[in-house]
Design a protein that fits this description.
This protein has a single domain, classed as P-loop containing nucleotide triphosphate hydrolases (Rossmann fold). About 30% of the residues lie in helices and about 25% in strands. The chain has six helices and nine strands; from the N terminus they run βββαββαβαααβαββ. β4 and β5 form a beta hairpin. α4 runs antiparallel to α5. The relative contact order is 0.21.
Length: about 210
């Protein structure tokens, strides 16, 4: 049986929030993401969100990142096109409606799947909120918009930061079902950063920060 080919390879990543001599959050970190769901865990302040931002190519770093051979350093647009990432803490998109965010993601990701988007909107009960600005939504609904947009992108790498926070039970169950089906798509990887592993989801890997 052949071993699965890596989706992402990170080599010698170093990053810190402050200018030197402030300590680095990550120093010479190397990792490999295989197809399926990888769980990133760690205590508060261990760098879970920062790691997702680094993998998305949105923070300055030293080191190398490759998705299926595409280098962030050599071709940032092509690399980021392979990554679905919406930071739930980012307020820049707050004036936009869910419909506008979905349209923007469809332009960003060539594989964006409108049928899949409809299924995710149904599963997350988003239809009544399509034309509301994010500022008019509850924190749970806002997070569901970001999740639906990321999932529908069909990106090679999908990054989810504490995706279950503030979600209702039916939406949690729906998202768990999507993640549980991840092995059926061998060319893609999902990274879930959270304090607990997603229950009922077979994991391709675990990255424990601060251990």
């Amino acid at each position: 049986m052949h071993s699965p080919l890596p989706i992402l390879q990170a080599e010698r990543l170093s990053f810190g929030h402050g200018a030197p001599p402030a300590p680095l959050l990550f120093e010479q970190l190397s990792l490999t993401l295989l197809p399926g769901v990888t769980w990133v865990c760690g205590d508060e302040g261990s760098g879970k969100t920062s790691l997702l931002q680094l993998l998305a190519g949105t923070l300055p770093l030293s080191g190398q990142l490759h998705i299926k051979g595409i280098s962030l350093a050599e071709n940032r647009p092509a690399y980021q096109q392979q990554v679905a990432w919406l930071d739930p803490r980012d307020t820049a998109l707050d004036p936009q409606t869910a419909r506008q965010i979905f349209a923007e993601r469809a332009q960003r990701h060539p594989g964006f799947d409108l049928e899949a988007l409809q299924a995710h909107m149904d599963g997350l009960s988003l239809a009544p909120h399509l034309d509301k600005a994010l500022t008019m939504m509850s924190s749970g609904t806002r997070r569901k918009v970001f999740i639906a947009a990321a999932l529908a992108s069909q990106a090679t790498l999908t990054l989810l930061d504490q995706p279950f926070m503030a979600l209702d039970r039916p939406s949690i169950d729906y998202l768990l079902g999507v993640l549980a089906a991840a092995p059926q798509q061998p060319g893609r990887a999902w990274v879930v950063a959270d304090y607990e592993a997603p229950p009922g989801v077979a994991l391709a890997g675990v990255i424990e920060l601060g251990a």
